[in-house]
Amino acid sequence: MNHDKKNRLPEQVLPSLRQGLTLNFAFLERGVVRGLSFVLFFGVGLFVLAGCGGGSSAPSARPPRTAKLQWLGHQSFLLTSSLGTKILTNPYAPGSVPYAFPPNIRPDVMLISNEVRTANNDGAVENFPTVFRSSVGKGINNAAGTRIRGTPTYPNPSSPDSVRMNLVFSWITDGMKFCFLGDVPSSLPPDEAALIGQVDVLFLPVGGRLGAADRDVVLQQLRPRVIIPMGSRGAVEAWAAGFDRVHRPGTSYVLLNREALPVEYVGIVLSPP
Predict the structure, then answer these.
(1) Which residues, including other chains, have CB under 8 Å from residue 225's CB and lie 6 or more apart?
(2) Average pLDDT over residues 98-121
(3) Whole-angstrom Cα Rg for the chain
(4) Which DSSP string corresponds to 151-162?
(5) How confident is the model at residue 60 (pLDDT cuts 50, 70, 90)?
């Protein structure tokens, strides 16, 4: 399969991406950020490890709000806001994917996009979070100080089937709009895409029902700044091999803040949990 062709971005966004993904850490060696700790900032064509400096008595600006996004395997992610609010997506059942769900996960909110074993194990956590799934997850909901939109999608939009319904969730954390597509079967209806609007971080399914052409349409509809591919490890690697611009932080998590997000598409491939 020609992944370059399959995952090629729309022509109108390619010029800026073709500037390349150069990890330029030369200035770190000159001591500009000496003593700084680990926070990942994004810029166009530039990824910088930075953080809170110590030992300076000079007044400083309020640090940006930073959210931690951790991959737990397959389509399961744990997003922790700067205030400690935790949102968990699609917890999987034992044996349904080649990962062991980690212990001691205590989210405030659980989002389940579809009722399959790889996504709906609400017993995987150690507490009793607010759960949005199926008909309960449709429309606008609020939990743990977060406003969450659930957009239903169907394999056959002309004949909605609640059993095969997939919910697309969107919400704002630390000033960034996140969109979790789940196992969306096709591109979004224009009116629903307009309600979601442009997103900052998009969880994009690869290797599932969403084909390459529909993925391109979704990227044009939602215009994300950061793309998190999700699915089997093989599917993620195949997608990354054909994507124009990919960053690998080398960990199962990444730290995000709005002020340092890239202007155009960047794919973030996290390491296996």
Answers:
(1) 42, 199, 200, 201, 261, 262, 263, 264, 265, 266
(2) 97
(3) 19
(4) EEE-SSTTS--G
(5) low
> How many other CB atoms are there within 10 angstroms of residue 256's CB atom?
27
> How many alpha carbons lie under 13 Å from residue 68 in its C-beta half-sphere?
14
Which is it for strands 176-180 and 253-256: parallel, antiparallel or unpaired? unpaired
Q: pLDDT digit string (tens) for 239-262? A: 999 998 999 999 999 999 999 999
Amino acid letter, residue 194: A
Cβ burial, residue 267 (10 Å; 0-12/13-18/19+): buried
Residue 1, pLDDT > 50, answer no
Distance from C-alpha of 186 to C-alpha of 202, rounded to nearest angstrom: 15
Strands 267-268 and 246-247: parallel
Q: What six digits make up the tokens of 223?
A: 């215009």
